[in-house]
Amino acid sequence: MARERAKRPHDFVRQQAKPEPPAFSPSCPFCPGNEAMTPPEIVTYQDQKTEGWRVRAFANRFPALTPEGSTMIREEEGFFLGMDGIGIHEVIVETPLHNKPLALMEDRGVEDVLRAYRERYDAISRMPFVKSIIIFKNHGLSAGTSLEHPHSQLVATPLVPRHIRMQYGVAIRYYDDTGRCLYSDLAGHELGIGKRVVMETERFVVFHPFASHQPFETWIVPKMHQACFGNASAEDLEDLAHVLRITLLKLYRGLNNPDFNYVIDTAPAGDEHKDCYLWHLRVIPRLTEVAGFEIGSGIYINTALPEETAHFMRELKVE
Predict the structure, then answer these.
(1) Contact at 8 Å (CB) between 197 and 310?
(2) Quick one: DSSP state of residue 154?
(3) Does CATH place domain 21-315 in 3.30.428.10?
(4) What is each CA distance from 216 to 28, 151, 264, 281, 284, in whole angstroms?
(5) Residues belonging to the active site
């Protein structure tokens, strides 16, 4: 925490508003009527009133990984080791409206998106080669999005990525030492002290982590122990929809629609019912740049205290 460079929460408000996109773009492959521009849909939720769709999911047209190949073959190239880029890469289009981000939806719309996440998670997790599933959203150019129509992505990999393996290993060691879940204890501690808590409902707690990597980094953590996002109940998703919408709406209103990423962290395949882990959702606003020191050291410089950013978010009144 760089106190010498510390900024007040208001200092992170975007000074210039993004231009308002149209409700429909004829060149957008995710807009209604342009379905032929995407691969065939795997999941679709129909709108009974308009007879159109509310949410669609389909294979990414330009995938990072594809289902073809073998996970059993490792090829040596001198000093290096490689394998086929096997996996799953899908897109979840969150709304037929080109200009309707999750923050401005109703709870029901956000719940539809979360249901689509879980439906695809459950189906893909049963594939024998899948070891890890990452669900994420990029919002804005600095967050890595290439199409502005609201959408999320899902990537399934044939191995557990090193970053996730290390994170999971810390949780296992904590469980071996204490007999308790690290993330459940963390959420309980934050609720106990309260100063970094942004929001609390019957099923979830929202807080800014003590060692936040970025200003306004936000975690949404279940109160009930569940290692895997796929184990979330319908009631969980209903409550999460409200919590996620309010969290994103506070960012939208309070910081003038910043770019952000969010990702759902969940247990690797095969560990869905372990006691050592708790799935959670992390929102990372793109308010600062990762520069040479962070790249060289792995240490992040945060210029905003999480106690102050949490207070700022807590005080915002939105519905």
Answers:
(1) yes
(2) E
(3) yes
(4) 31, 22, 17, 14, 7
(5) 151
pTM of the model: 0.96
Closest by CA to 147, choosing from 60, 64, 227, is 60
The angle formed by the CA atoms of residues 203, 206 and 210, to the nearest 5 degrees, is: 135
Domain ranges of the chain: 21-315
58 contacts 91 by C-beta, under 8 angstroms: yes
Cα 247 from Cα 286, distance rounded (Å):
15
- pLDDT level of residue 15 (50, 70, 90 thresholds): confident
| Tens of pLDDT, residues 120-140 | 999 999 999 999 999 999 999
Name the strand (E) or helix (H) holding 313: helix 306-315
Q: How far apart are the first and last CA of the chain?
A: 32
- Cα–Cα distance between 158 and 230 in angstroms, integer? 18
- Shortest CA distance to 243 belongs to which of 297, 313, 306? 313
Both structure tokens of 281: 């959702």
